[in-house]
Amino acid sequence: MGWILIDRARSESSRKRRERANATGGANQTPSGSHAPPTQLFDALSALAELSPRKAEALTLSALCGLSYERIAELLAVSSKTVQRDIEFARAWVASHIQATANTR
Predict the structure, then answer these.
(1) DSSP assignment string, 70-81
(2) For residue 39, which of 21, 17, 13 has the smallest C-alpha distance?
(3) What is the CATH number of the domain that holds 46?
């Protein structure tokens, strides 16, 4: 399953680059907030899943599968507000984890 998530993240990143290139008239510019490689994202999601499986699952379903908060709430049997809080926490935790691992390298 991990490789599916990585492939999904790569294709999403590629799509976003194409959209930015089209919006800037084809200029190949790097965004100011650079994104982590898919392997770092997968590692961070795996670490989060060990601490809080529901938060990791909610983030995966939202960011990588594109499901709405309402649909995720149905799948996880929680309220959509809980899904929103879980995803906000998970995004912040993953970003922090990626930054921390990048600083140790």
Answers:
(1) HHHHHHHTS-HH
(2) 13
(3) 1.10.10
Distance of alpha carbon 49 from alpha carbon 28, whole angstroms:
35
Instruction: Give the position of tokens 């649909």.
Output: 71
> What pTM did the predictor assign?
0.65
Half-sphere exposure of 75 (CA within 13 A, CB side): 16
Domain that holds residue 75: 2-18+37-103
DSSP string, 13-46: HHHHHHHHHHHTTT-----SSPPPPHHHHHHHHH
pLDDT > 70? residue 19? yes
The two structure tokens encoding residue 59: 């983030």
**Which tokens belong to 70?**
């309402």
